Amino acid sequence: GAVVSQHPSRVICKSGTSVKIECRSLDFQATTMFWYRQFPKKSLMLMATSNEGSKATYEQGVEKDKFLINHASLTLSTLTVTSAHPEDSSFYICSAKRTGVETQYFGPGTRLLVL
Amino acid sequence: AQSVTQLDSHVSVSEGTPVLLRCNYSSSYSPSLFWYVQHPNKGLQLLLKYTSAATLVKGINGFEAEFKKSETSFHLTKPSAHMSDAAEYFCVVSQNTNAGKSTFGDGTTLTVKP
């Protein structure tokens, strides 16, 4: 159990366009989801914490108007990169937690390339 | 506040020899500690976790870790490395709350030589 999926796994887009990434918990209800960004050969950087039905909490330095997060249900959170630029190219990973459980279950990641 | 230090950015071992990946942590709370593995271009897979139960934790693929509060350490070990163990390993500390944030170490790249 505790499977998290992400879609798409890989996306290439033109500069200035918006890209939506979905994160789904397939077999459990995720009260909290996290969005991370990972640069090549680097650790994961937490971007924001998303709780179902409420606004996301963004980490310092992360532009909330650029990285729109929606957690509309207990099994789905979305990250929209608006007006993407080449510097937004990265590996984006989501994770999900159940209420009362400390373990985060990670999605397989989405590789974004902005041309 | 919490932080994680992975003491080695790269570890290289020969196949069949022991693996030791070191992790020290600091936390204002009673923490949960995790080790995750990431293969190239893949997501993170949980190896094992410590959540205030037994201090010696056994995980998947023969890995284990020991929580030592006095040393604030949570080192990952395996008696005999396989080629398939070559990957990036992350030590993670998390607050014991429902929305507890996790802090990741910088990662250790494990290379296994034939």
Give a verbal description of the structure.
The complex is a heterodimer of chains A (115) and B (114). Chain A is an all-beta fold and 115 residues long. Chain A is 0% helix and 52% strand. In chain A, the strands form 2 sheets. In chain A, strands 2, 4, 5, 6, 9, 10 and 11 form a 7-stranded mixed beta sheet that branches. Chain A starts with a strand and ends with a strand. With 114 residues, chain B is mainly β. Helices cover 0% and strands 55% of the residues of chain B. In chain B, the strands form 3 sheets. In chain B, strands 2, 5, 6, 10, 11 and 12 form a 6-stranded mixed beta sheet that branches. Chain B has a 4-stranded antiparallel beta sheet with strand order 3-9-8-7, with no helix packed on it. A two-stranded antiparallel ribbon of chain B has the order 1-4. The model of chain B has no long low-confidence stretch (mean pLDDT 90).
